[in-house]
Design a protein that fits this description.
- This protein has 160 residues and is mainly β.
- It is 0% helix and 53% strand.
- It contains no helices and 14 strands.
- The strands form 4 sheets. It has a 6-stranded antiparallel sheet with strand order 7-8-9-1-14-13, with no helix packed on it. A 3-stranded antiparallel sheet has the order 2-11-12, with no helix packed on it. Strands 4-3-10 form a 3-stranded antiparallel sheet, with no helix packed on it.
- Strand 13 and strand 14 form a beta hairpin.
- The radius of gyration is 17 Å and the shape is elongated.
- It starts with a strand and ends with a strand.
Length: 160
């Protein structure tokens, strides 16, 4: 099992979460490495928890199935549960966003492509269409009259 963790400095917002619904799925984008031969896939790969592929020679399925070009081994990854919201903390703490069951592969790097959402820390303001690809985000909470931000975004993939 692998977990994608996040540590970020949230100011004025909390419950940061990828917009990941059946109607608007989030595609988690990773670099993938084979655990048998250590070959790294040349491209970034994207995984959705709402899409699954059959595993060859098995009755099961997975959210991501990959055959390594170097050693020809088939590997899989499945998202175990819905993503967890990242809550504002001072100082910022590392929190798990999502958990993967990986067989024969490892995720080595993450790109925060896609839309995220959060809510105001002191207000009920909902912030949507948050882009974290640059590692920071700024906006204004009209209800509180304060600037809100997400800074110092740090992703890490760890063993669960």
């Amino acid at each position: 099992m692998l977990v994608l963790t996040l540590r970020a400095d949230l100011t004025g917002v909390t419950q940061l979460l990828p917009l990941d619904t059946q109607d608007e799925p989030f595609f988690y984008t990773f670099r993938v490495q084979c655990t048998s031969c250590r070959e790294t896939h040349p491209n970034w790969v994207s995984i959705s928890r709402f899409e699954s592929t059959d595993i060859s020679g098995s009755k099961g399925d997975a959210n991501f199935v990959w055959r390594c070009k170097a050693c020809k081994r088939e590997s899989t990854a499945s998202i175990k549960e819905a993503p967890k919201a990242y809550d504002q903390a001072s100082p910022p703490t590392r929190q798990t966003v999502i958990t993967f069951d990986c067989r024969g592969l490892e995720f080595t790097d993450f790109q925060a492509n896609g839309e995220w959402m959060a809510k105001g820390l002191e207000t009920a303001t909902r912030f949507t269409a948050i882009e974290l690809t640059e590692g920071e985000w700024y906006d204004f909470d009209e209800k509180s009259g304060e600037e809100v931000s997400i800074k110092e975004v740090d992703w890490e993939i760890r063993r669960a």
